[in-house]
């Protein structure tokens, strides 16, 4: 009886290990659960410290430091190209493609100082995670209430100039693991035009070879983040927003396709990041991709 019990216990211990080793779906769920638990645990541990400072963008540093170790735990290598473009003292808007929650790992590698993401309101209700996000100054929008979301974005246009902030937006508006990018929402571009600040597109290469929520795949791997040169919005008005949105999207989709078809990741750091894809062409000729190196804050 005792031996049978011991065998049962041993099996109970070994089974998860075997499943983790040999069942890809179980492996995937373990890794995703660990990711969420990590975020939850960090938010719970660090929010009280962030609360001492109150709601402020400086708490983003804490949030980023909490997420950074995850890439080591998952064996994920991240290459960043063109980060020097972000060395600009003025406020700006970053637009980035959004494949999965894993984007958080890439975001914390490149996010500049005094930069806050725009996030869906639902995050606010995720217990201490919501609290941590609120304390870090993350801007929340209700995607179901376009009018309210537009109001928040309009207020943000004033805030970023007044408080010298940068804003990180996923213009696809939702996670997307298809072979291309979803149509872009226009909020980010209205924001940049309203505030008359530049836009920096950031493209994260596809996760296909190591992560897929559809195929339940999650292995170690490598991805690349490319920061593209700035796109000016000075002189543009709301009527230019649709064309601006399409031009930026096309530029990003082209870079994404190039990254998908060239997985050897041997691009030189000084590659002309925006070839003649149109991002330098403005509706009134004012866009350009001038080098901002050396203006670091
Ligand atoms: C303390 C340490 C603790 C450590 C613990 C760690 C915890 C870490 C955890 C977490 C970290 C944080 C992670 C953050 C990441 C979150 C990611 C997300 O949540 S992604 C979802 C939200 N993002 C968006 O949805 C994009 C922004 N959305 C938009 O821009 C949309 O445009 C929106 C919502 C404003 C409207 O959406 P529409 O679906 O109605 O789409 P449209 O076609 O773009 O707009 C409709 C009309 O409104 C106009 N419009 C849009 N924005 C406007 C504006 N600002 N002004 C004037 N008109 C505007 C447009 O031009 C359009 O009109 P016409 O068709 O052109 O006539
Ligand atoms: C009380 C339960 C707490 C559970 C804690 C789990 C926290 C994990 C939070 C990771 C946040 C990553 C941000 C993210 O990637 O959000 C998704 C949205 O961009 C788009 O949403 P959707 O694709 O439209 O659902």
Automatic annotation (TrEMBL):
<dbReference type="GO" id="GO:0006654">
    <property type="term" value="P:phosphatidic acid biosynthetic process"/>
</dbReference>
<keyword id="KW-0444">Lipid biosynthesis</keyword>
<feature type="transmembrane region" description="Helical">
    <location>
        <begin position="35"/>
        <end position="52"/>
    </location>
</feature>
<keyword id="KW-0812">Transmembrane</keyword>
<feature type="region of interest" description="Disordered">
    <location>
        <begin position="275"/>
        <end position="297"/>
    </location>
</feature>
<keyword id="KW-0443">Lipid metabolism</keyword>
<protein>
    <recommendedName>
        <fullName>1-acyl-sn-glycerol-3-phosphate acyltransferase</fullName>
        <ecNumber>2.3.1.51</ecNumber>
    </recommendedName>
</protein>
<keyword id="KW-0012">Acyltransferase</keyword>
<keyword id="KW-0594">Phospholipid biosynthesis</keyword>
<dbReference type="InterPro" id="IPR002123">
    <property type="entry name" value="Plipid/glycerol_acylTrfase"/>
</dbReference>
<dbReference type="InterPro" id="IPR004552">
    <property type="entry name" value="AGP_acyltrans"/>
</dbReference>
<comment type="function">
    <text>Converts 1-acyl-sn-glycerol-3-phosphate (lysophosphatidic acid or LPA) into 1,2-diacyl-sn-glycerol-3-phosphate (phosphatidic acid or PA) by incorporating an acyl moiety at the sn-2 position of the glycerol backbone.</text>
</comment>
<keyword id="KW-1133">Transmembrane helix</keyword>
<comment type="pathway">
    <text>Phospholipid metabolism; CDP-diacylglycerol biosynthesis; CDP-diacylglycerol from sn-glycerol 3-phosphate: step 2/3.</text>
</comment>
<dbReference type="Pfam" id="PF01553">
    <property type="entry name" value="Acyltransferase"/>
</dbReference>
<keyword id="KW-1208">Phospholipid metabolism</keyword>
<keyword id="KW-0472">Membrane</keyword>
<dbReference type="GO" id="GO:0003841">
    <property type="term" value="F:1-acylglycerol-3-phosphate O-acyltransferase activity"/>
</dbReference>
<dbReference type="GO" id="GO:0005783">
    <property type="term" value="C:endoplasmic reticulum"/>
</dbReference>
<dbReference type="GO" id="GO:0016020">
    <property type="term" value="C:membrane"/>
</dbReference>
<comment type="similarity">
    <text>Belongs to the 1-acyl-sn-glycerol-3-phosphate acyltransferase family.</text>
</comment>
<feature type="domain" description="Phospholipid/glycerol acyltransferase">
    <location>
        <begin position="92"/>
        <end position="207"/>
    </location>
</feature>
<keyword id="KW-0808">Transferase</keyword>
């Amino acid at each position: 009886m005792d031996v049978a019990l011991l065998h049962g216990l041993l099996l109970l211990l070994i089974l998860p290990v075997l499943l983790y080793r040999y069942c890809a779906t179980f492996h995937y769920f373990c890794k995703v659960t660990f990711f969420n638990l990590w975020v939850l645990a960090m938010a719970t541990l660090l929010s009280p410290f962030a609360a001492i400072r109150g709601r402020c963008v400086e708490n983003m540093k804490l949030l980023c430091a909490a997420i950074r170790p995850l890439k080591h735990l998952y064996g994920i290598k991240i290459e960043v190209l063109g980060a020097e473009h972000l060395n600009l003292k003025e406020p700006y808007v970053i637009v980035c493609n959004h494949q999965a929650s894993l984007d958080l790992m890439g975001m914390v590698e490149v996010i500049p100082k005094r930069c806050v993401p725009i996030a869906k309101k639902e995050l606010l209700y995720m217990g201490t995670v919501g609290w941590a996000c609120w304390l870090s100054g993350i801007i929340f929008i209700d995607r179901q209430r376009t009018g309210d979301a537009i109001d928040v974005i309009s207020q943000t246009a004033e805030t970023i100039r007044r408080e010298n902030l940068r804003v990180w937006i996923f213009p696809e508006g939702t996670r997307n693991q298809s072979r291309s990018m979803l149509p872009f929402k226009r909020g980010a571009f209205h924001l940049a035009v309203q505030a008359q600040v530049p836009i920096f597109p950031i493209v994260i290469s596809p996760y296909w070879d190591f992560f897929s929520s559809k195929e339940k795949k999650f292995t170690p791997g490598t991805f690349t983040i490319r920061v593209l040169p700035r796109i000016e919005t000075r002189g543009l008005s709301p009527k230019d927003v649709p064309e601006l949105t399409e031009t930026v999207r096309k530029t990003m989709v082209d870079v994404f396709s190039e990254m998908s078809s060239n997985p050897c990741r041997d691009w030189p750091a000084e590659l002309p990041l925006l070839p003649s894809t149109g991002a330098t062409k403005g509706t009134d000729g004012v866009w350009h991709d001038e080098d901002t190196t050396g203006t670091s804050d």
